[in-house]
Design goal:
The protein folds into 2 domains: 186 residues, Glycogen Phosphorylase B (Rossmann fold); 172 residues, Glycogen Phosphorylase B (Rossmann fold, 3-Layer(aba) Sandwich). 44% of the residues lie in helices and 17% in strands. It contains 13 helices and 14 strands. The protein is elongated and about 85 Å long.
Length: 374
């Protein structure tokens, strides 16, 4: 049994793959511990996944404003102490998913010669991965993504690890649960924690027009943005239409499986879930994402035939794009076929298998070294 520290706090995009790897390690008989920050999203995951062990440590995102910069360095100093206390227990590996929380674990882990595995799911690696990748034994990147300056063999290509609950569910089963007729159209909008405002405003503006065309709408408005409610409207043909306003959903696989089309931001986790749930999408990349990584993610999925991309500056065209695609059954079917072809691998299983293979190799080398010394 191996003990593994998984550094994944700070954002949902880091927490979800961390949980996915922890679930897989636990199934294989290992002992994972997830290192998280003290942000509300981290606390939510800690409450939800009670079967997993979480450890909260200090940490704050980097910022150039004086107050943000001072907080960053103060929290970073405390984080080094917390990370040293965890690393001196000599875990068998550190698996890190980027972000501000990783920095002290990458530095001290390398000094203590603990194997480090660094994962980046976005098409443009984040600042932490770019600056500290050389400290990792292996760096996992999406297919086709490279980082300069790494030793030969350091890069391994891997998709986004997904939690066990992210599975495609037959559409008819979910529609019965929500009492939505089989042939009615369903649209879901997801803005994420940062980019929800523009999409929420778009729904509020067009929801009655969508309902008039018989389109059921689910708007995941974002944590803290209103209360969950359902509006019951009528289409132009006098059929019932549902509009669901949901601040935060913990059943995204069901909703993606239910929908004919999603309108969403372009985080790597969102795209991976859409692929698994075979949900065609219109991607509206968050324009303020670091290094425009969401734009790169959306361009890649569009190139592979899994989505239509609409930049936020062209949101005036979004309603027309939604209507053109939502009622084009041939194109939706073609997109689902493309998504099915993209979703054949299981990244969580693959990463854990590689960890186990590396552990076995280190044990063999240690035994061989001991035998030669005798």
């Amino acid at each position: 049994m191996a003990e593994v520290l998984i550094i994944c706090g700070g954002t949902g995009g880091h927490l979800t793959p961390g949980v996915a790897i922890a679930e897989r390690l636990l199934e294989r008989g290992h002992s994972p511990r997830l290192v998280i920050s003290r942000k509300p999203i981290d606390t939510y995951f800690k409450r939800r996944y009670e079967q997993l062990e979480f450890v909260s440590v200090p940490g704050a995102a980097f910022g150039l404003k004086p107050a943000a910069l001072a907080k960053f360095f103060f929290e970073l100093f405390q984080a080094f102490g917390a990370s040293f206390r965890l690393l001196r227990q000599r875990p068998d590996a550190v698996v890190a998913f980027g972000g501000f929380l990783c920095v002290p674990f990458l530095i001290l882990g390398r000094l203590l010669r603990i194997p480090i595995y660094l994962h980046e799911a976005n098409r443009i690696p984040g600042r932490t991965v770019r600056y500290f990748a050389r400290l990792a034994d292996h760096v996992y990147l999406p297919d086709g993504v490279r980082l300069l300056g790494l030793r030969p063999g350091a890069i391994r290509h891997l998709g986004m690890p997904l939690r066990n609950e992210i599975q495609h569910v037959p559409k008819d089963e979910i529609r019965r649960r929500y009492n939505i007729p089989r042939h009615d159209k369903v649209l879901i909008l997801v803005g994420g924690s940062q980019g929800a405002l523009a999409l929420n405003q778009w729904v509020e503006r067009y929801v009655k027009m969508l309902a008039a065309d018989g389109i059921h709408t689910f708007c995941i408005a974002g944590p803290g943005k209103g209360k969950e409610r359902v509006e019951h409207l009528k289409s132009d043909s006098d059929t019932p239409v549902q509009v669901h306003w949901i601040p935060f959903a913990d059943n995204m696989a069901d909703l993606y499986s239910l929908a004919d089309l999603a309108v969403c931001r372009s985080g790597a986790g969102t795209i991976a879930e859409l692929i698994t749930c075979l949900c065609p999408s219109i991607q509206v990349p968050y324009p303020f994402a670091a290094d425009e990584h969401q734009e790169a993610n959306a361009q890649d999925l569009e190139r592979r035939g899994g989505c239509v991309r609409v930049p936020q500056e062209r949101m005036k065209t979004l309603y027309r794009e939604v209507m053109d695609l939502l009622f084009n059954d041939w194109l939706l079917t073609r997109m689902r076929e493309n998504l099915r072809a993209l979703g054949r691998s299981n990244a969580a299983r693959q990463l854990v298998r590689e960890l186990e293979s590396d552990w076995e190799e280190r044990v063999r080398l240690a035994e061989k070294k001991e035998a030669s010394a005798q």
